[in-house]
Amino acid sequence: MTRLRTAWAAALLALLMACGAGASDAPRACTMIGSSAGIAVSVEPPLAREANAVWTSVCWDGSCVETLSALVPGQAAVDQGCDGAGPDSSCSAVMTPDGTMQGFVGVAALPLKEVEVTTVVQRRDGTELRRDVARVTPEPTYPNGKDCEPGGNQVRLTLP
């Protein structure tokens, strides 16, 4: 009789575990990955040909943060296709230069409200190539998805 009770208890436990394994409201695991707060700058052609660095001044509530950041050649992913359509198929892409220059300016305390950003794109010799002023509102990033805590606040500026 004890074996029968044990078998029924084990079967009931297995059934409960199986039912719970597929529950869609199970808590989602959030990793410790983060994202930096700041401003991503993209300098487009033809301006990008001479661009080497970007100086920024980000201002809000009467204070400003000034930073100089190097620019690096931008790249875009080019789809190389897939070797099939099944779940074990593999797909690939290659990165190729896209003619832009890219940079990221870290601003640790970047708020979630409108800020004024002055950008000065510089040539290799440090002379000013272009100056822009924009009013933008940073947004939070979610490196682990919207169900997890946000990362750093960011904004993206494109200089044509």
Overview of this protein structure:
With 160 residues, the protein is mainly beta. It has a domain of 100 residues: Immunoglobulin-like. It is 12% helix and 47% strand. The protein is built from one helix and nine strands. Strands 4-5-1-9-8 form a five-stranded mixed sheet, with no helix packed on it. A four-stranded antiparallel sheet has the order 3-2-6-7, with no helix packed on it. The longest helix has 20 residues. The radius of gyration is 25 Å and the shape is flat. The N and C termini lie far apart (81 Å). The N terminus is likely disordered.
Shape: flat
Topology as H/E string?
A: HEEEEEEEEE
Helix content: 10-25%
- SSE class: mainly beta
C-alpha termini separation: 81 Å
Q: If helices are DSSP runs of H or I spanning 4 or more residues, what is the number of helices? A: 1
Task: Tell me the name of the CATH homologous superfamily of one domain.
Answer: Domain of unknown function DUF4458
Major sheet:
5 strands, mixed
Concise overview:
With 160 residues, this protein is mostly beta strands. The protein is 12% helix and 47% strand. The longest helix is centred in the N-terminal third of the chain and has 20 residues.
Properties at a glance:
single chain; 160 residues; mainly beta; Immunoglobulin-like; 5-stranded mixed beta sheet; 4-stranded antiparallel beta sheet; 1 helix; 9 strands; 47% strand; disordered N terminus; signal; DUF2690 domain-containing protein
Chain-wise SSE layout:
Blueprint: H1 2-21, E1 38-43, E2 53-60, E3 63-70, E4 72-82, E5 91-106, E6 115-122, E7 128-136, E8 139-140, E9 153-159
Parallel strand pairs: 1-9
Antiparallel strand pairs: 1-5, 2-3, 2-6, 4-5, 6-7, 8-9
